[in-house]
Write a structure and sequence with these properties.
It is a single chain. The protein has helices at about 5-60, 105-130, 145-165, and strands at about 70, 85, 90-95. The protein has about 180 residues and is mainly α. It is globular.
């Protein structure tokens, strides 16, 4: 068999496979971008309504200032399981990028996350107004128990508001309470 007769077929096959992979990648990227774009559009268009819903449901009053929302996590914060972060020093909310979506990241999860991070923003702004200090405000000389206590209150409050706003039940029981640090 003459090898020169097979070469064009192999090249054609290689081009077809490469084209298929490129096309598949474009479809996946467009799907992720559409999904991320839908959530970004939703938050951008409904942030005031989401804040107003929290104010009415919880009985709080947000300041006139609004957080800046970024649709990516900072590289130093890319830990498994983190869907959003509130940065109390800059008053910015960072939400997980659609390009790094874990399984289960959907619109309901995204709404949970924005309510959770908005609560951190509220707690920080309230602390700035009442004590002229960021919240949470960790000090270098704090013990681990003190830092965990602040974290427990901060995350517990944000999780409570997240669940209340999205009609979820509080599932925490006394058996869930940590037995040690």
């Amino acid at each position: 068999m003459n090898i020169s007769l097979q070469a064009p077929t192999f090249r054609s096959l290689r081009r077809a496979v490469a084209g298929g992979v490129l096309y598949t990648g474009m479809i996946i990227a467009a799907s992720i971008e559409r999904k991320e774009g839908e959530f970004k559009t939703y938050v951008d268009q409904n942030l005031e309504e989401l804040i107003q819903q929290q104010e009415e449901a919880i009985g709080i009053a947000y300041p006139a200032e609004r957080p800046v929302i970024h649709y990516y996590l900072p590289h130093d914060k890319l830990n498994k399981g983190i869907l959003g972060i509130y940065e109390h020093k800059t008053n910015d909310i960072f939400l997980l990028s659609g390009y790094l979506e874990p399984p289960g990241w959907d619109f309901a999860t995204a709404k949970d996350t924005i309510h959770h991070e908005l609560t951190h923003y509220y707690m920080d702004k309230h602390s700035e107004q009442m004590r002229n200090s960021d919240y949470p405000n960790y000090h270098d000389d704090m013990t681990l128990a003190e830092k965990l206590g602040i974290k427990l209150i901060s995350e517990g409050t944000a999780t409570y508001v997240e669940r209340k706003m999205n009609g979820k039940e509080d599932t925490f029981t006394d058996q869930d309470w940590p037995k040690s640090i």
